[in-house]
Amino acid sequence: MAVDRWLAAFLDGLREAFGERPLFVGHHGSWARGEATPESDIDTMVILDHIAPEDLAAYRAVVDAMPEGGRDASGLFDSIAEVRAKPRSERLQYFHGCKVLHGTVDGIL
Which of 2, 7, 9, 44 has the fewest CB atoms within 10 Å distance of its CB? Predict the structure, then answer.
C-alpha cells in the first residue's frame, strides 16, 4: 500500500472539505511506527477548531472518497474542546509515535 500517497490525498480532502479549520492532522499506529502488516489499517487523527453536526458528514465523505472507500482508515476526529476533555494519558498519542502531517498541538493540549 502506498501510505504516503494515501495520507497526502486524505490531507487534500480535509483541506477541500474544511478549508483552514483543521488545526492538526497526524498519522499514528503501525504504519507510522514502521511496523505495519498487509492487514494494518491507516490510523489518523484530526483536530478541528470545533465540530458541528454537518462536519461529521463532511468527514465521512472525505474518508469514503479515499481508495477502497476508506476501508483501511481508522481515525480520531475531534474538536479542541474534545481533545482537552480527554484524560492526560490519552493525549500522549498526539506526541508519541505520531507523524505530524499538518499543524501542531501546541496551544491545544
Answer: 2
